[in-house]
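Example A, followed by Example B.
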Amino acid sequence: MESNKENAINFYKTAYKGNPKKAVDRATNAGAEVLAPIRLVQTNGIETKQAFLKGPDGEIIELMQIISGDF
């Protein structure tokens, strides 16, 4: 049986694919709760799309797509 961390990594690899809306839709269809919808964040020369969800075991999930800039 996979751990929550392994599930999260596998979800990220298979569902996200650079499309935050698709990832949020897939997560909510699987029972996740949206805590903060997709939003554009710009700070310190970095532009991202970001969303926060609550997973089925209560874990907080952050989805982020870097649009421009580097960490």
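Example B, a separate protein, is given below in the same form.
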Amino acid sequence: MTTTSEPTLFDMPAPDTGLEACRFVWDSLSRHEARALWTELTNWVDWLRDTYQLDTKIKSCWYRHSPVLYELTALMAAHKAVYLTEPDARDAYREDLTAWHTQWMRASVAEIAKQMADCTLDGCAYTRHRPVVDTEMAAFITADVARRSTTAPVGTSMSAMSDDQMSDLVDRGLATQLPPTDHGQARVESGGTHWHLNPLTNTWEAQSTN
């Protein structure tokens, strides 16, 4: 869990998808939500460590380890998604109970044991560090964006484009000029789609090939 004032994942600019972070994303929680999740998670981890005898793998300082905290939160959410069900499905036989053990729990516990290998009853060995960021990354991204066309990629669901956009595709070899129609209308093929030039609007319109 983030404990500094540094930007978190959900502070970063992102496309407006209309979606929200679920309640298991620690960086997005209010005080009330965080208190509720801490209570739910600590109770569940206590049950997990005791039931499966995992105290030597998931050590008592697990809550101090950010990666372990996220791992156990996800494992708990997956466990409850499997074991909690609608009343009318309560008696149904199901295979996802085994899948939770073989696909999720065992791999997670093994990874957590590695993360906590140096921790002992006398102290927690976890130290958070900031990953090194390549100083040339920003310049590389800027150059990558600059080399791209302002037109949409071939094969997208565009139904019209400007004459300048089509000319750019032709210049880049991504569109091929075809013989004009019987009415003298200019034609181009790009990405398997035929385009006709509308002389009234001077825009290229995608045509059905059916």
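On Example B: Residues 9-115 form one domain.
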